[in-house]
Amino acid sequence: QLQLVESGGGLVQPGGSLRLSCYASGFTLENYSIGWFRQAPGKEREGVSCISPSSRKIIYADSVKGRFTISRDNAAKTVYLQMNDLKPEDTGLYYCAADATGSHYCGVILYEYEYWGQGMQVTVSS
Question: Computed from CA positions of residues 57, 30, 40, 64, in that sequence, does the dihedral angle turn out positive or negative?
Answer without folding.
Answer: negative
